C-alpha cells in the first residue's frame, strides 16, 4: 500500500552565536562584534497535485532540514538554514505520533498549495554583542543555537474525487473506470486487484468530474478485515457513490445491502451519501436472463438500478450522465464539516530553580544555551555569567532557594561553583 506513511522529521539546529571583538587599526577598544547564529530550517509539508501517492518515499524515512550557520565577527549574522519541503498528495491527513503511540491530528491538506510546518527550526544563538554592559564591556558570553524540533508523523492519504466507485472485490470497478475515463487501472480476475485508489477524469463538454475506484471490501471491513480500513478511509472524500454490484452474484441486492452496512458501521455519514446502483456484467447471457428478477429485487427495496457492461461499454454513458446529475444537485461539505488545520502555539519556557541533591539546578532554556557555548573553566567567563544571571533575576531565585558561596550550580548539564 502506498497511501499510508510513517516518517520522522527533524528541523534544522540554530547556528551558534559568535564571540568576537572588533580589531582594526586606529580603533582601540573596539568592543564586542560577535553576530547571531542563523535560524534552523523548518520541515514543511506541501499538498501537490502532481503527487498521487507516497510511493517515492520509503516507509520510516527521515527528513532533515538544514541547520543555520554560526554567527561571525563584524556583527555578521549566520545564514538561515534551508527548509525541507516535502510534497504530499492532495487529501493527505497528517498526524503526530506521541511517545505513548497516540496519534494527534495536525492537519488535513486538501487543496493544491496547502502548507503545514510540522517541525520548526531552532533559534540562532545570540552573539556576544548582546551581552555588553557598562560594567562588562568585553563579554565572552554567547549562546549555542537551539535544537530544531523532531517529530514522528503518520501520513494517511484519503482520495479526493467527486464520485467514488464502491462494491465488493471483482465486481468490475477497474473495468468501469477504464471504460469511463483515460485511467488505466490494473484489471485481473482475482480479489483485491486494486490496493490503492485509482482516479480518472470524465469529460462532459465543458464540465469534468473526478471518478475514483475505491479498493474493494468484504463483510467485516468496518472491523478491519480484508482491506477494510484502507477501503473505507478513501470513501470519506467522495460526494457521490456509484455502487457497483455483480449481476452474476447469487443475490446482487443483498450484496449491496452488506456493503452499505459496512459503510454505516464505519461512519454513519458515509451511509447518507447519495448513491447510484449499477448492476454490471449485463453482457453475460445468464445475467441478461435474470435482469427482470434483479430489477424487481432492487425495486422492492426502493432502488432503480442502472444495468451496464463495463467490458463492452453498454450503459456506461447513461450511468455517468445519471451520476453527473446527482453530483450537480448534491451539496458540497460546508467549511464547518471539513477538518481544520491546527497551528501549534509558541513554546513558552518555564524558568525555575530547584534543589536536587547537592546541586542548585537552573531550568532556563536561554541560560542553558549560554553555558553550553562558553568555557566554564575560565574564571573570568564564569564571573561574567554570574553578573548576567544577577541582572536576569536568577541570582535572587538562587538566594531564595538557599544557595551559599561555594555551593554547586548546574544548568544544561554543566556544573560550576557559585
How would you describe the overall organization of this protein?
By secondary structure, the protein is α/β, with parallel strands linked by helices. It has 3 domains: 1-157, GTP1/OBG domain (Spo0b-associated Gtp-binding Protein, Chain: A), CATH 2.70.210; 163-335, Rossmann fold (3-Layer(aba) Sandwich), CATH 3.40.50.300; 352-417, GTP-binding protein OBG, C-terminal domain (GMP Synthetase, Chain A, domain 3, 2-Layer Sandwich), CATH 3.30.300. It is 22% helix and 23% strand. The strands form 4 sheets. The protein has a 6-stranded mixed beta sheet with strand order 10-11-9-12-13-14, with helices on both faces. Strands 3-1-8-5-6 form a 5-stranded mixed beta sheet, with no helix packed on it. Strand 13 (275-280), helix 5 and strand 14 (306-307) form a beta-alpha-beta unit. The protein starts with a strand and ends with a strand.
Give the SSE order as H and E letters: EEEEEEEEEHEEHEHHEHEHEEHHHEE
Second CATH tier, the architecture of the largest domain: 3-Layer(aba) Sandwich
Strand content: 15-25%
CATH superfamily of the largest domain: P-loop containing nucleotide triphosphate hydrolases
| Residue runs with pLDDT of under 50 for 5 or more positions | 185-195, 218-229, 334-340
Q: What is the approximate shape?
A: elongated
Please report the first level of CATH classification, the CATH class of the largest domain.
Alpha Beta
**Discrete helix count:** 9
Rg to the nearest angstrom?
Answer: 32 Å
Main pleated sheet:
6 strands, mixed
What is the CATH topology classification name of the largest domain? Answer: Rossmann fold
The number of distinct β-strands equals 18
Structural class: alpha/beta
Spatial strand sequence of the major β-sheet: 10-11-9-12-13-14
Number of domains: 3
Amino acid at each position: 500500500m502506498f497511501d499510508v506513511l510513517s516518517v520522522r522529521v527533524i528541523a534544522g539546529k540554530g547556528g551558534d552565536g559568535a564571540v568576537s571583538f572588533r580589531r582594526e587599526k586606529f580603533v582601540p577598544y573596539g568592543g564586542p562584534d560577535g553576530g547571531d547564529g542563523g535560524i534552523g530550517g523548518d520541515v514543511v509539508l506541501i499538498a501537490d497535485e502532481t503527487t498521487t501517492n507516497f510511493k517515492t518515499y520509503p516507509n520510516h524515512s527521515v527528513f532533515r532540514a538544514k541547520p543555520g550557520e554560526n554567527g561571525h565577527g563584524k556583527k555578521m549574522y549566520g545564514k538561515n538554514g534551508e527548509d525541507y519541503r516535502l510534497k504530499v498528495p492532495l487529501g493527505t491527513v497528517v498526524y503526530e505520533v506521541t511517545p505513548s503511540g497516540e496519534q494527534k491530528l495536525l492537519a488535513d491538506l486538501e487543496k493544491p498549495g496547502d502548507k503545514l510546518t510540522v517541525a520548526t527550526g531552532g533559534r540562532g544563538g545570540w552573539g556576544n554583542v548582546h551581552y555588553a554592559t557598562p560594567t562588562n564591556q568585553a563579554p565572552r558570553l554567547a549562546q549555542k543555537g537551539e535544537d530544531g524540533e523532531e517529530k514522528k508523523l503518520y501520513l494517511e492519504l484519503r482520495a479526493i474525487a467527486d464520485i467514488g466507485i464502491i462494491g465488493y472485490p471483482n465486481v468490475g470497478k477497474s473495468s468501469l473506470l477504464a471504460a469511463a475515463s483515460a485511467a488505466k487501472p490494473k484489471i485481473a480476475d482475482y480479489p483485491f486487484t486494486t490496493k490503492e485508489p485509482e482516479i480518472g477524469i470524465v469529460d462532459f463538454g465543458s464540465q469534468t468530474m473526478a471518478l475514483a475506484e475505491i479498493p474493494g471490501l468484504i463483510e467485516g471491513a468496518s472491523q478491519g478485515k480484508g482491506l477494510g480500513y484502507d477501503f473505507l478511509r478513501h470513501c470519506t472524500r467522495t460526494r457521490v457513490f456509484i455502487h457497483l454490484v455483480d449481476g452474476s452474484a447469487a443475490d446482487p441486492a443483498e450484496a449491496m445491502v452488506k456493503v452499505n452496512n459496512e459503510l454505516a458501521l464505519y461512519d454513519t455519514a458515509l451511509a447518507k451519501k447519495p448513491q447510484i446502483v449499477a448492476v454490471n456484467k449485463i453482457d453475460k447471457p445468464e445475467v441478461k436472463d435474470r435482469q427482470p428478477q434483479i430489477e424487481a429485487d432492487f425495486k422492492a427495496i426502493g432502488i432503480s438500478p442502472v444495468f451496464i457492461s463495463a467490458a463492452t461499454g453498454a450503459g456506461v454513458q447513461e450511468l455517468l450522465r445519471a451520476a453527473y446529475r446527482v453530483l450537480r444537485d448534491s451539496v458540497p461539505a460546508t467549511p464547518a464539516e471539513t477538518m481544520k488545520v491546527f497551528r501549534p502555539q509558541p513554546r513558552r519556557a518555564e524558568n525555575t530553580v530547584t534543589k536536587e541533591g547537592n546541586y542548585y539546578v537552573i531550568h532556563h532554556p536561554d541560560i542553558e544555551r549560554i553555558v553550553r557555548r562558553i568555557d566554564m573553566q575560565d574564571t573570568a567567563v564564569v564571573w561574567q555569567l554570574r553578573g548576567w544571571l544577577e541582572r536576569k533575576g536568577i541570582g535572587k531565585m538562587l538566594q531564595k532557594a538557599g544557595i551559599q558561596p561555594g555551593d554547586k550550580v548546574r544548568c544544561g548539564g554543566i556544573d560550576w561553583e557559585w
